[in-house]
Amino acid sequence: MTHHVALLRAVNVGKRKVPMADLRALCSQHGLEDAKTYVASGNVVFAAKVPPAEAEDRLEAALEGRFGFKVDVVVRTARQIAAALEHNPFVTASAIEPHRVMLLFAKRPLAKDAAERIMERAQGGEKVAEGRLVDALWPRIDGDSAHRSFTSALHRLRKLLGEDRALVLHEGKLTLDRRYVWVDAWAFEAFAQRAESVAEPAVLESLADRMLSLYRGPFMADDVDEPWYQPPRERMRGRLARAMGRVLRHWQDSGQRDRALGCYQACRDADPGFKELVTDR
User: Which of 190, 204, 213, 242 is the most buried (most CB within 10 A)?
Assistant: First the structure.
């Protein structure tokens, strides 16, 4: 028999109560043997001869029949769980703050544009679907309750900003109106785009200086373990490194060594990760 782990979504929150003793009994009744649970987490370990997909179907049907509501279940073998842990990209963070490192298992294969959608959620700002915001901010709430939470949060945020027009909700998509809202990441990206195409050294120096003044360290640095922040974080770091690398080379070639060293140190002060990025260019 193969050992499996079953993860139950959104149980023991609100009225969706699933006592762990009942969950263990259901497992035993449906051929999932030696079931063990941990507190009221909704996670259960068991041994079975069936593959994970069949175990999922059995548990979902049993839970709905017993409790009267649908519960999404994800089942993985113990070997699959161990393999996921072995490929943890956040080993250091896991050792320092293990409670902030999360591992998610998708029930179905991810869409081809999943990475782009995650980046959109991380960057935010324009034409973000209400559903995506609800999934990110209130993952355990469904239907009308989730919509009410979104509407209430939107109302409070507009009041906090002091301008209702700063946040535009149109056809179910939320946008920050650039006429009323200034975002440092937007300004940084605009300067970076110009810097990548400009040829005049003086203009490049000015743009690079503005980028460095806006760059206050890695993007969302306080949320170091959130994987969806990594792509924009690395993109912004890389764009600044490319611009500053061109400026540094220009100063070195024109004999302005002290100026180049000062700029390099400013980059290092802003982000220690620049050590490799800048010197490699």
Answer: 204
